[in-house]
Amino acid sequence: MMWRIWRVMAAGGHMGRAMLLAVVVLLAGAGLLVLSGWFISATALAGLAGAGGMFDVFRPAASIRGLALLRTTSRYGERWLGHDATLRGVAALRLMVLGGLARAPWRQLQRQRRGAALAQVVADTDTLDALPLRVVMPLVAGLIAIVAVGGLIGWLAGGVMALWIAGTHLGGAIAAGLWGARRGPRTAAQELAARAAFGRYTLDLIAARDDLAIHGRLPHQLAQAMQAEARVAEMAALQDLDERDAALILDLTRAATMGGALALGAMGVESGAFGPAIAGACFFAALALGEATAPLRRMVTEYGRIRDAAQRVGPMLEIPAPQGTAQTGAVLPLTIGDLTLGAGQVLAVSGPSGAGKTTLLERIAGLGPDAEPPIRLGGIRPTDWDEGELRARLTMVPQRPALIAGTLRDNLALAAPVAEDAELLAALQAVRLDHLRGGLDLWLKDGGAGLSGGEQRRLALARAILRQPQLLILDEPTEGLDAATARAVLAGIRQALPQAAIVLASHRPSDLQGADFRMELS
Amino acid sequence: MEQDGAERGAARRLLAPEARALRLAALLSVIAHLCWLPMAGCAAWVLAGLVEGRGVSLGVILGFVACGLARGGLNHLAEGVAQRAALGAVTRLRGELLQVVSGRAVLPRAGALALVAGDQAAAIVPYAVRYGMGFARAAVVPLVILLCAFAVSWAAGLILLLTGPVIPVFMALVGHAAGRASRAQFQEMSSLGALLADRVAALPDIRLLGAGQRLRDEFGRAAEALRARTMQVLGIAFLSSTVLELFAALGVAIMAVFCGFSLLGHFGFGMWGAPLSVGQALFLLMIAPEFYQPLRDLAAAWHDRASADAAAALIAQEMAEAPAMPGLGAPAVPLAVGGIALRGLRHRGIAYPDLDLRAGEALVLTGPSGSGKSTLLRLLAGLEAPEAGQVLVAGQALDAQNADAWRAGLGWMPQAVHFLDASLEENLRMGRAGDLDAALRSAAADHLPEGLPEGQATRLGERGAGLSGGEARRLTLARALYGAPGWILADEPTADLDAGTAERVAQGLLAAHRGGAGLIVATHDPALIAAIGREYRLGAP
């Protein structure tokens, strides 16, 4: 899952360049310390030997300054490229998620829309920006730096010293990582759940306070919220403990590595394997590599959060595309069993709640599984239609339509991106929504807030009219409208779309009058 | 970061009860970082011994490792102490905040408050942990290292002294501009997140309208434009930290070169007497980076304080003095059923005519929108205390002492119900005892639970888990009828309903009244006004 997400985010090659610079940063930092350590030991030896005048000071001194500059500039480049690549990656990921969600089975989408599940997926794509920045890049760069510096030490001071310094750093890093991975993902998921619960209880406490107070439930609700809070704090403390433990493991490893490097250096000098300047260089190399493993500390908890997010985002990327491919012809006539509905005709579907009116409409719209009675659109099974072609010919207005934040014009443009204002106004007039103050520029907040329920429904109907469908499917189009408005709206729709076949489900007897066909579900 | 005077220090004031623990954590953290001095001394002594050809004692190496272990352990401990104090503070703040705000007469917007109690309060933690310890380290560690450097060589001390202060100065200069830019940036970023969330919520409709590809194109363009702008801002921020790093790196490089030249005998200045020894040189080289590090840590944690202060100011604002709701909203034994009377009642600019109702009587409150019908219902329920005059219930003045008991005998039907994130059954019972099936029957809602995925156990959320407006209203009626209350207070019970549902709701209320319950209904509905008969008319505001 993580691999799949990484591939989406890393597509384009920007990550690779950032990673390269991250390696340069670490190596330049190590080089700076190693060279400085060597320089001081070597100059001291030369000074003691009275050969100070012979010592070439300028090349090492210039190299030290050069490495300092290289380190800072490559650091700048690494951060710039890394963040740039990550922003591109997150955008690509969000587009993939959006595409996947658009293909998701209809019922699943309907169900999730209301809950927090979708909002969570959106938040998860944000969490995943830590995958390249805080996990993959530091991990790969750190590994390369340890191996490269280990190689340098091996060349300078032999295999034992190299194995000790690179081996303990790697070992410490692995130990810290394993310690964090032990329960990190579980803690992260539980913390997230607890935070969400606290948010919901708090929201309920304030939004339903009057109801709670009247029923004597205020202390109970408060206690529930604070119980969730205690759980948040508990999980946060656990995460922090894991993070500190990882830091402790890394700190202890570093102290042991450097101490060992000193001891091995002393032994090497005594046995004549290498000079004191090399011993100094090795000690400073051990010190410098601490920077390569430092990001692991954050990584252990970050990884938990990332894995948790990846588990929710991943499936969104793998939702298969609809199978239908039929592209030609008209969706009319619509046949449902023996019934045949042609252009300009109306089918009214009625029946009590739960009789399956919505399910039938969804099946006609190609959103539900095939079942009895058989449904054909222009002779073709709805699910066999190509999605785009079908939507171009058939429009359904669900029982609870959704609007978007933006102007009325933005909302209508979803249906007709290039329509003139006159067309948009005509559609609004058809549903008796031309009286709204602000007209097309009226601003709606999230989900269409600012309009009443009946106005929202009528705006959705206007949207459907703009699609100019051959077949219009309406699920309870007049709920929440008074009888006069309901009649006017249905008449307006008919007038705007004289040739369209209309399938309409309703509880309201007056809506069903004048239909060419009736279908009573029980 | 720019902050106005009221915000500055707000987070510190909120953390006053944790001040001791945080001071201890800061102290431990400073000691941990000072451990580097003996470590550097031991390492320099060992390496110098190798250069000068005297032996190396194992004890010194062990001393080095021991100090390293102590450093790790102290850090672990310090952060633990700070973290525990910070989490405790957040819990305390959230508890106080919810307690105070939920006891208000008039409530803030729930979503905004949930945000303050959730994310904003959590902003205290990084401030208490990272900034608090970082500040202490930045105040002490560089000074100690500077003294050590001066003790060895005045020139080395001078190198640190001259390059060090540049860092905070630059930090302030660049941080100021970058902070402003990044805040603007952050707002834009969260608005893109909001855009995505909004569009995702509308995805089913977007699919039905065949607008999926267009939506993705739109979003792709918005994301690309945001990336370009973000990188401009980040460019500034990165540049500022690069400058800091450059000064630190150059400081270390100058130190290394100074030491090397001194050891070679090229430089004869900078010492207090004896020439620089190799051990002293290595020691200086090792402590130099630690001189800059605390300053850079503090720079990185700088915005923690700004966000914590902003959060603390928000919390303080939410907790500011405001009229409280009488009573606790706690369970209580209901008052004996009795009459209701209003005497000289005046609240929020509206004078309410006096009124006398006997137990079991019915009344409609009428008047234009804004004339105070809903407010009167809240006054009658004891949710607000009147500014002047009295509400008398069962012969006693309604006050903080008897409000809970009075409310325990009320059925309450708000205009827009907010269902709790709990099962339908819990939402209806609300902890009271009674015959739920009978209440559902009286509200013509006995078949509703069957239509829900898990019947009465279905969890309802903010939007009522797919209940229509009429269904939600009938369930609210069932809740008001449940437990046979002595009085039922209903606010616009039939508004926005189709004729059939409105009729059923009205019948449910009237049946309860016939069964003996007193009934007070605020409404515009002519049918309901006619059915109840007795009218209490409120004027224009």
From TrEMBL, chain A:
Organism of provenance: Paracoccus sulfuroxidans
Topological category with respect to the lipid bilayer: Multi-pass membrane protein
Residue ranges of domain ABC transmembrane type-1 in the record: 18-305
Protein name listed in UniProt: ATP-binding cassette subfamily C protein CydC
Residues of the ABC transporter domain: 304-522
Pfam families noted in UniProt: ABC_tran
A GO CC annotation given for this chain: plasma membrane
SUPFAM superfamilies reported in the protein's UniProt record: ABC transporter transmembrane region, P-loop containing nucleoside triphosphate hydrolases
TM segment ranges: 135-156, 162-181
Compartments where located: Cell membrane
Annotated GO MF terms: ABC-type transporter activity; ATP binding; ATP hydrolysis activity; ATPase-coupled lipid transmembrane transporter activity
Entry-linked SMART domains: AAA
Superkingdom of the source species: Bacteria
Keywords recorded for this protein, A-Z: ATP-binding, Membrane, Nucleotide-binding, Transmembrane, Transmembrane helix
Automatic annotation (TrEMBL), chain B:
Pfam families: ABC_membrane (PF00664), ABC_tran (PF00005)
SMART domains according to UniProt: AAA
InterPro entries, per the entry: AAA+_ATPase, ABC1_TM_dom, ABC1_TM_sf, ABC_transporter-like_ATP-bd, ABC_transporter-like_CS, P-loop_NTPase, Type_1_exporter
Domain ABC transmembrane type-1: 24-307
Gene Ontology CC: plasma membrane
Membrane topology, record value: Multi-pass membrane protein
Gene Ontology terms, MF aspect: ABC-type transporter activity; ATP binding; ATP hydrolysis activity
UniProt-annotated location(s): Cell membrane
Domain ABC transporter: 335-541
Name of the protein in its database record: ATP-binding cassette subfamily C protein CydD
Organism: Paracoccus sulfuroxidans
